[in-house]
Specification:
4 copies of one chain form a homotetramer.
Chain A (H helix, E strand, L loop, with lengths): L2 H18 L15 H32 L8 H15 L1 H10 L4 H26 L5 H7 L4 H18 L1 H16 L4 H11 L4
Helix pairs in contact in A: 1-2, 1-3, 2-4, 2-8, 3-5, 4-5, 5-7, 5-8, 6-9, 7-8
Chain lengths: ~200, ~200, ~200, ~200
């Protein structure tokens, strides 16, 4: 299978995930009144958690693309590793919704962290599956030995741990990771550029 | 019509089906409490049935692609055979939801099996429609004479039958078929590869 | 703007319309019981109206594609004529849902007919807009002078009229038009084929 | 990253936004009766606000395309500027829904105006980000010095201000801007055409 078709399907799923989260937000009812006061009470928190998950899906969309720049064809293992990642990402609307509906209670914060962690692990498994492919060694070389991939999971675990102290405290590492990733990953781009500029022998 | 456009439309529909199933899951209410205990009670089963249907849609997406590798153009019969397949797949969110909401009652399990069976039949009809096309004989050759396509429908019927004994028992064949298909179909790939490697006379 | 991009966007919208209609179907509640009896009572009619609208969206998707085979570039008028068509098609989930929820009452049947009629008119306006383009004369030639486009609107009007006698009677012309269109439109294909086979002077 | 992939993803998100707004419309219940009278009471206003937001998303889809005609590659800044725009557009279903549900109350009208204003600002930021790219100067040249971009934000602010006098009065500038933009933006097209017609020295 060509990686372009896998990318198009993944883009479709990510576009839907990022958009349907909005459907889960609840507006104030007629009884609550249609005022900004009622809006902030009933919808304000949903907006913030939506923003956080929107950034996360945006990050995965951005990084997902880089992964497939090194290889034109994928096999069944990569295909299912990719669906495995999409599965965890598809749960973001659910875990985000619970986080907001519970007004950031302990267990929903832990679940949100577990969801983030599972998606990160699935992403890591996907990179391993791609590295198996012909030309996949380039990806390993491009991603190098250290980086944001390695710092994110411990920060998710930290957030999960902190949630048991205070759920709001637990959210801080999740926000920090999102901010950290907002700076797009230029390593693959750099590597590709370096390769193109390399003198042909 | 070019098969690429039909594939893109089908990919879009499958991406939406696989994602909107999440919207059907219900979270614990404020009254139930926002604890893992309440989450497992209210959402746990939905997660499992979602996972099962997610895998099935993933399987159809994967196999769907192989079908159209042998032919570049499609006619009206293939087009409607494809829409017929998409119709049954589009009912997965409904039948999956009923299965979870009823806590795996008998009739919802039977309906889920019927939905799986109808999709399998629609897929088979689609392969017949493609084999009619110029070059479609290749597909028949590639799929060969035996295989997972032939084992799946009897297993769905078995599951439907077992559901009358015990709904949970009926789910087993459905899970078995999903696991069986998780190993991607390499037969078409192999056939294409064999053809490419064949010495040109 | 290239027509390919307009087609891709329209395909996306149609794929979403055809899929989210499923979200509007209501399952029997715990109180109704999770039996086939309750399912047919609460969901059976929705399934039938869903099937009808599914076929209609399928028809529009199929025919939409033919329209843009004659021209590679589109202008602003075509773009908005296309969005105008998508607007009416996007109301199908709403009018279909009302038809089912009201158990085929008079006014919802009339509204469904109006929706079908409005989409047909929007489609006709779109063909006019495309005929204005360079090369658009071909479309007029290909569609010829008589055909299903001319029979459909009167049948919608007939259905709307009959709905005032009996809503179920009013549905008959809507079903007839759908069946009539299920045979895909080969006229454009034929015209393109004829042109390709024409001896080059 | 190639701009074509960013466009495809954005198209997907816009197609979903424009379609799921329909899911937010409420039909009359059995108690209200299934009559046109009840329909206009419960759904009529939603239809009008849906139409307005449909036109706005259509406008953004149309203009979005023009932006990326001048540059084939995008960097991380453009990517996040684009996601920033999509974020505000993804809130349209929410703000449109509140506007309709509140029967055009003051605060929801103000929020709708803020949403329009934020999307316009995000669009402006995106044009700045693209102008930074190699070849981006062309965009600046093409958009010229005056135009609809400059008139829209003050009109949104006017609408927000007027909403404090009367919400319905506040909607007028929002409708005026939509009508103003319905005439598609031919400036970029003209500039590209002019460039192509320029004599090559």
């Amino acid at each position: 299978m060509q990686s372009s078709r896998l990318e198009a399907f993944s883009d479709g799923v990510l576009a839907i995930i990022i958009t349907i989260m909005v459907l889960e937000m609840h507006l104030p009812s007629d009884k609550d009144g249609h005022t900004f006061h009622a809006f902030f009470d009933h919808t304000g928190l949903s907006l913030l958690t939506y923003l956080l998950s929107f950034v996360y899906v945006g990050i995965y969309w951005n990084n997902h693309h880089h992964l497939f720049q090194v290889s034109e064809n994928v096999d069944g293992v990569v295909l299912w590793a990719n669906l495995h990642l999409l599965f965890w990402l598809s749960l973001f609307p659910l875990s985000t919704n619970w986080l907001a509906e519970s007004h950031v209670a302990r267990d929903p914060t832990v679940l949100y962290g577990i969801n983030l962690l599972a998606a990160a692990v699935a992403y890591f498994v996907l990179t391993l599956a791609i590295q198996r492919l012909p030309g996949g060694g380039n990806l390993q070389e491009a991603l190098g030995g250290s980086g944001k991939e390695k710092i994110s999971p411990p920060l998710y675990v930290l957030g999960i741990g902190l949630a048991f102290v205070s759920p709001w405290l637990g959210l801080i590492p999740f926000v920090v990771v999102a901010l950290m990733w907002l700076v797009p990953d230029r390593r693959v781009e750099r590597w590709l550029q370096a390769r193109d500029e390399m003198p042909k022998v």
